Amino acid sequence: MASAQRGKDMEPRRLGRALERYHRQPFEGKENEMEMRPLGNSGLHVSALSFGTMSFGGEGFFQTVGNTEQAEGERLIGLCLDHGINLFDTADAYSLGRSEEILGRALGARRQDVLIATKGFSRMGQGPNGMGSSRYHLMRAVEGSLRRLGTDYIDLYQMHAYDELTPIEETLRALDDLVRAGKVRYIGCSNYAGWQLMKALACADRHGWSRYISQQIYYSLAGRDAEHELVPLGLDQGVGILVYGGLAYGLLSGKFRRGAADPQDARATMWNVCGTERERVLTIVEVMVDIATQRNVPVSQVAINWLLRKPGVTSVIFGARNEAQLEDNLGAASWCLSPEEVSRLDAISETPLRYPYSFYRDVVPERSPYFRKEQ
After folding, report:
1. Catalytic residue numbers, as ranges
2. Over the stretch 148-186, which tens digit does the pLDDT of each residue have?
3. Domain for residue 258, yes or no?
4. What local confidence, expressed as pLDDT, does residue 6 receive?
């Protein structure tokens, strides 16, 4: 009996130290107080909500996301700072660097009080070396980001994608050199598959190089594929999760309802980008609307608050085209879904587990606590 009890007590450890931490300290929304969370297995603390600047600049493809210029960008950044946000996310690819430029100028002297996360990998020049994760491209990409941001260091530098044409050893050694040179403080990745992230972590550990402390991934009530592999991996390996697309590119904003016409400003490719089915999403939205109505909050806050309650999630990145959108999203950190509401949203949005994850859930759940069915 005592042995069985010891086994039960040790179960959280099998999920990794990060999951144990989140079980001990569940999210509790507090009005006028932004929660700070450790980013992965590091000493860096970031706000539970982060601000993404993909809409800054509005050039090329990114016109469909937004066209925030300097004055409006400064107002949005100021509101974020007033609400306790300390992490601002961008990328060199966003409007071909304009996003970084606007963010850097908007922060100005306040840059020392915040964390800047940017990304490299995307095409920023002509020729075969104008994109990717080679040493050649990364060194040039970091220098370009530093210049546009108007800073001499980047707090979190993230690989925007995995480069299968460059040895991972070359990428990680280049990133480690940038950390040692003081140009980058921490490194992370984005859009990696589980095996790609694990390969990178193992390589860094083997050589004693800087390790990814975060992964930036798409995760929402409309798209929960990340729960199959990326979330458990992050929990086990101490890699924090920065969520993007929490509103499923606007589909979970409350503007899309069954029986109603889509908003005129809706992006035409929304449904395809999410890789999801319209009827399924509209069914999820109906439950979100019911919860939002009972709580007297915007529908978008339900989607963000649900993410803040999920194991492994460090921070939810959101964007805004205007101050009204920003204020709506910021409110998601001021309250907390009940366990019953979370369960209701979990059930309506559940994604079928594929093999081998279904095997661990159905056949050996006592040794697989993350995939165990709810009792």
Report:
1. 94
2. 999 999 999 999 999 999 999 999 999 999 999 999 999
3. no
4. 38
How buried is 175 (Cβ within 10 angstroms: 0-12 exposed, 13-18 middle, 19+ buried)? buried
Integer Cα distance of 33 and 301 in angstroms: 16
**Rounded Cα gap, residues 326 and 331, in angstroms:** 9
Q: Determine, yes or no, domain membership for 86.
A: yes
Torsion angle, CA of 47/49/51/52, rounded to 10 degrees? 120
DSSP label at 328? Answer: H
Q: Which domain holds residue 157?
A: 16-249+310-337
Residue 279 lies in a domain: no
291-301: pLDDT as tens digits: 999 999 999 99
Question: Tokens 């929960």 identify what position?
Answer: 224
φ/ψ of residue 63, rounded to 5: -60, -30
CATH of the domain at 87: 3.20.20.100
Instruction: Give the number of other CB atoms < 10 A from CB of residue 181.
Output: 11
Alpha helices (H) in the chain, listed in sequence order: 2-10, 17-24, 70-82, 98-107, 135-149, 168-180, 194-207, 230-237, 270-273, 278-295, 299-308, 323-330, 339-349, 357-362
Q: Determine the Cα–Cα distance for residues 306 and 16; give it in Å rounded to an integer.
A: 22
Q: Give backbone dihedrals phi and psi of 120, rounded to 5 degrees, phi first.
A: -130, 160
For the ranges 91-100, 123-132, 256-265, which has the lowest average pLDDT?
Answer: 256-265
d(CA 333, CA 329): 8
Residue 294 has phi, psi (to 5 degrees) of: -65, -35
Flag whether 267 is in a domain.
no
Both tokens of residue 145? 């980001």
Closest by CA position to 318, among listed 251, 234, 246, 213: 246
Query: Count of domains in the chain?
Result: 1
